[in-house]
């Protein structure tokens, strides 16, 4: 029982595994990978360009759960019976507060300057889009698999309040184990 309580506390406040159900982060993260997310990452710092973040789906329904429902969900997630993933999204931080993001000539431009994106697969293409202005306490996020990613190009910048944490390691499958 003590181990279960400790697991729930760790999952609730420190780190949490997340299941990746889609191909939006290929090749960095594969479909069905499990990643660990540092839930304290943004309590003492702000997101940085290149961070891989998990956040609440802005198009998802607002879930209002009671304390008993939240405890049950946390216990099931802590022991691995239930996994997060369908209610949350994972993407890479591209634009920071006060910046303007544009896609032009197959390059992401921040305030008119092309950024290096070594994590993208060769041959990735992007349509010209933007400009998108990132507000105070917001980030602009995009999946690494640009052609198959539902991201800030569709739903706009993400509020800091909707960030759950920063993904830092792939834990499953074992063949993919390693830092992100």
The largest β sheet comes out as: 8 strands, antiparallel
Tally of individual domains: 1
Structural class estimated from helices and strands: alpha+beta
Q: Give the H and E element order.
A: HEEEHEEEEEEHEEE
- How far apart, in Å, are the first and last alpha carbons? 33 Å
Q: What is the C-level CATH assignment?
A: Mainly Beta
How many individual β-strands?
12
Low-confidence stretches: none
CATH superfamily: Umud Fragment, subunit A
Structure write-up:
The protein is globular and about 55 Å long. It has 3 helices and 12 strands. It has helices at residues 2-13, 67-78, 152-155, and strands at residues 15-19, 34-38, 52-56, 88-95, 100-104, 107-110, 113-114, 129-133, 138-142, 158-159, 163-172, 178-179. Strands 1, 2, 3, 4, 9, 10, 11 and 12 form an 8-stranded antiparallel β-sheet that branches. The chain has a 4-stranded antiparallel β-sheet with strand order 7-6-5-8, with no helix packed on it. With 180 residues, the protein is an alpha+beta fold. The protein has one domain: Umud Fragment, subunit A, CATH 2.10.109. Strand 5 and strand 6 (107-110) form a beta hairpin. 16% of the residues lie in helices and 32% in strands.
Task: Reconstruct the topology from this structure.
Blueprint (H helix, E strand, L loop, with lengths): L1 H12 L1 E5 L14 E5 L13 E5 L10 H12 L9 E8 L4 E5 L2 E4 L2 E2 L14 E5 L4 E5 L9 H4 L2 E2 L3 E10 L5 E2 L1
Antiparallel strand pairs: 1-2, 2-11, 3-4, 3-11, 4-9, 5-6, 5-8, 6-7, 9-10, 11-12
Helix pairs in contact: 1-2
